[in-house]
Amino acid sequence: MVDLKKDVKYVKGVGPNRVTLLNGLGIFTLEDLISHYPRDYEDRSKPKKIAELIDGEEVLIEVFPVSRMTEIRAGKMKIYKLVVRDDTGTMIITWFNQSYLKNRFKMGEKYKFFGKVNMKYGKMEMNSPVYDSEETNKNTGKIIPIYPSTYRLSQNTIRTIIENGLNSLDGTLEETLPDYLLSEYNLESLETAIHQIHFPNDFKEFERARKRLVFEELLTVQIGLLHLKNKYSKNQIGISFNKNVKMSDVINDLPFKLTKAQLKVLEEIDADMEDVKPMNRLLQGDVGSGKTIVSIIAAYKAVKCGYQVAIMAPTAILASQHLESFESTLSKYGIECDLLIGSVTKKQKELKLEKLKNGEIDILIGTHALLEDNVVFKNLGLVVTDEQHRFGVRQRSTIASKGNNPDVLVMTATPIPRTLALILYGDLDISIIDELPPNRKKIETYAVTKGMEERVNNFIKKLVNEGRQAYIVCPLVEENEEIDAKSVLELYEKYKKEVFSDYRLEYIHGKMRPKEKDEIMERFKNGEIDILMSTTVIEVGVNVPNASIMIVENAERFGLAQLHQLRGRVGRGEYQSYCILKYQGKSDIIRQRMKIMQDTDNGFIIAEKDLELRGSGEFFGTRQHGLPEFKIANLFEDMQILKSVQSVALKIENEDPKLELEKNYKLRKMVENKFENRIEL
Ligand code: ADP
Ligand code: MG
Q1: How far apart are the CA of 462 and the centre of ligand 1, in A?
Q2: What is the CATH number of the domain that holds 137?
């Protein structure tokens, strides 16, 4: 068997210079090289007739020279022209300074040229094409891969290196999928798939190759996650919280009635908490669906059973807000909550850590600061992370390791279609709150272009005059010459001087110090600021019920899921609320996306549509999940394959959760190889 971990420098044609360039592309081993998949393909396999050529297209022609090549001097430059014909017409092929081509082409012989055609003085020309003689197939006659590369490594070079790498395999590439899956799902063998993904014979072969590789990639992640789930929970002894501590004691005391969805989710959580195996549960619910109160009730149970609780939020603002919510519900039960964020003084921090260690703090709420080594609990029983896609698998387990197999509840407000949740959070059980508390008013949403600016500004003034507050969200902090979008600082200057000079206008953005941010948020909350301009720092969870209008500048630059999150900052009080999306650009996609925001207030539908219009990469920013990145799979386009993969994974989970059966030996190896090494737990 070939050694895939072999250094790429041993591949034919790779000298010291090229090693450095390849390393720069993330290619270190033979395996990296052969899985450096093309980003595109050029079809040089189907010739066209001269009479059918279209100005500007890249195309293959099969032609005969009709005369000798002519040489024209233009200053220092030498221009070579060759007139060629097929049975439909003639055209001119031009090269510059390539004198070695002068006698290359013989009259009466057939040649293949591939290049871009352009119309000049009513006649088709082709400049500096690649070519082959009738018998050769070096540059034409096939589908040519185009690789992600740098300008210092030409397409020709990287193509040759990869071809050499593939040739060195020579029938010795070890199959990674078990036979029973290959035949059940009619999948190509690994070796054929790898060859065909780089140099496909035709597009049908390419599709087969791609399907096989996507299947493998998704299956590895899916089984890997299920494997982790079993490792965590199946055999682990966690905490069995006391059945006699009733969640209903808090539920009956609340000033409102929980929704059916909240009650159902709480039942699931309660059952998990009473079970001795550690809980690992994802709680999904739209903005404002009432996840926080669910976590408060779970925390109540943990504390009343004698354990401590850690709540981890993505930002200091959100952590402070959580503290308020937790205290307002739980103080009356004698439960002690505290806050640990980056901005507390050293002395305060020491005090807090001391109280945490000896059990005087029941619930500690904070940011990443909770992850530090010196944060030691006396008896941690429940961990809640409010993720919003900002923590990964690793942080989750770091915080959990501060207890003895505590229960873990992960909350996210980004609605994810169920199939995708399974692959992004496959290591967790999933609960969904799919209903908003009653009497929520729909946030009226309007998408507008520049012409409406003045009316929008007047509308803001009207609402502020009535006592409300407003958000104005921009995509950038500072001006950036390369990006045509509004920045907070630039727009603040303009609005302050020209538009809202009579109003209390301030700004906040992610580059400010946490203390400054907290201060501004505090003042906004207290009604000391009328209009708050910001970047997406306010995206997450900020709760100011008096704010009833949000303007989003350059709304076309945001993901729909993100716009939906932002929009959730208004409509949190008793007032009718508005979201105005100002956008530029005339493309259909932009208009469709704006229309979805106007018409829909269901986060799950928005998420699905967004995915459809943009593809999965942008939607998720998979990097942030701590999951292996997908090299070839596209979660949206490959939904069908993902579904097959999920049914395979489920079957295996039931039949052979630890991948011990002989027939699953290869899968086990694959998961260990590609998955566990990358995710430390
Ligand atoms: P999420 O965290 O899901 O975005 P929150 O928990 O912050 O939502 O809830 C938003 C607001 O709705 C909070 O002020 C909360 O007290 C309130 N709330 C939660 N559940 C209900 C309910 N069942 N009925 C009425 N109000 C609720
Ligand atoms: Mg919340």
Answers
A1: 28
A2: 2.40.50.140
